[in-house]
Amino acid sequence: MKLLKRIYCRIYQGAFRLAFPLLPYREPQLFHSVEELESLLHRLRPEAVLLVTDEGLCKAGLTARVEALLGRMNIRCAIYSGTRANPTVTNVEESRKLYEDEKCSCIIALGGGSPMDCAKGVGARVAYPHKSLRQLKGLLKVLRKIPPLIAIPTTAGTGSEVTLTAVLTDDAKKHKYTMNDFTLIPRYAVLDPELTRSLPPSLTAATGMDALTHAVEAFIGRSTTKETRSMAMEAVRLIFASLEKAYVDGSNMEARRNMLRASYAAGVAFSRSYVGYVHAVAHSLGGQYNFPHGLTNAVLLPNVLEKYGVAIHGKLMTLAVCAGVADQTDSPATAAEKFITSIRQMNKRMNIPATLKGICPGDIPEMAAHAEKEANPLYPVPVLMDAKELEGFYLGIME
Fold it and tell me: Would you say 355 and 299 are in contact if contact means Cβ atoms under 8 Å apart?
């Protein structure tokens, strides 16, 4: 990266770091079962609620408890189940129309990061009915209050129930973009491990590695605080202790509960300290090829950590000791190598591949340009890279 651009990025990131204490971060009010929402709904008194989810969750019956609760309270439930794995602008507009047609005044997002991102998009469009999502993308464009948003994760990975970010895919241009606004943080979240019981092993693995990526990228970045470091370390400890247990035995409720907590803690960490090039590259791949985000993060994470090199050895040593894969007698370089190796081995044990099929070399320059635009100057990465350097990550995971 050219020197002037490098200086600009670091000044930009430094300004954000100084402004951090003044920014209106908040955490949602937490509930631990769907049924606990009854008192909240009595207080909100909505006549109709938009339930944003996906077809698979509807077919699996995971929306039944929410529908039953709303039915008992005589609250109409309008269900949008068309959310794609990488939610699109079309998904948002379809669900927004349903919200308006059914005269809803509250939104419930049930699912992984995709329904939550779609629901955040709906909230933004309700708040700004005369602006397109393209006009609302980026940082601090959604300043008006959105309708009450209740987030109910059915995966333990995205942390979307606590973040200010929505990631959406432009159907026409085939790339992802983000909205980052404090108003998009859900006001309420339900961490109910029973809703994750039926999550297949492959999704348990991919979403768990997504949470690990959030925690690691938040920890190694240059805009951490005491709180975000603590939250990231808690997430790493819980993931290394519980993810493979949940992968092997989906009915292990202690492991499922720990993973929900880990996902939440990682969400707190990265929503305040941001992510890095793993996410920027993964978003471009998801937009181009509709690759699942968690899986893509899992494949990319060890490669990107390796590329950062000595700049993060000290921080990776802290995480390696926290995860129980290294000890204080190791050198920073050795501990960092052990941590990266442990991620590769965990991926392998959970049948996560080291490469991805379908990446076209001709698409790489454009995807790398999108990744650089997303990451620089916003993400406080430990080592700055330009689009040309980012191209190596795509080449490194091509099958």
Answer: yes
What are the tens digits of pLDDT across the range 350-397?
Answer: 999 999 999 999 999 999 999 999 999 999 999 999 999 999 999 999
Q: How far apart are CA 249 and CA 267, in angstroms?
A: 24
Alpha carbon distance 200, 209 (integer Å): 14
Q: Looking at the predicted structure, is the pLDDT value of residue 20 above 90?
A: no
**What does the longest C-alpha to C-alpha distance in the chain come to?**
63
Q: How far apart (Å, rounded) are the C-alpha atoms in residues 269 and 235?
A: 9
Q: Which of 235, 272, 226 is nearest to 25 (CA)?
A: 272
Q: What is the pLDDT of residues 175-213, one digit of tens each?
A: 788 899 999 999 999 999 999 999 999 999 999 999 999
- Asked whether residue 3 carries a pLDDT value surpassing 90, the answer given is yes
How far apart (Å, rounded) are the C-alpha atoms in residues 310 and 332? 9
- Pick left, alpha or beta for residue 160 (phi over 0 → left; psi -120 to 50 → alpha; otherwise beta): alpha
The CA distances from residue 221 to 204, 270, 338, 376, 383, in Å, are 26, 10, 20, 13, 9
Q: Starting at the edge strand that comes first in sequence, how are the strands of the sheet with 48-52 ordered?
A: 29-31, 188-190, 149-153, 106-111, 48-52, 76-80
Taking the CA atoms of 382, 22, 266 and 283 in sequence, report the sign of the dihedral they define. negative
Contacts of 241 (CB under 8 A, 6+ apart): 258, 324
Strand pairing category for 165-170 and 106-111: unpaired
pLDDT value of position 86: 85
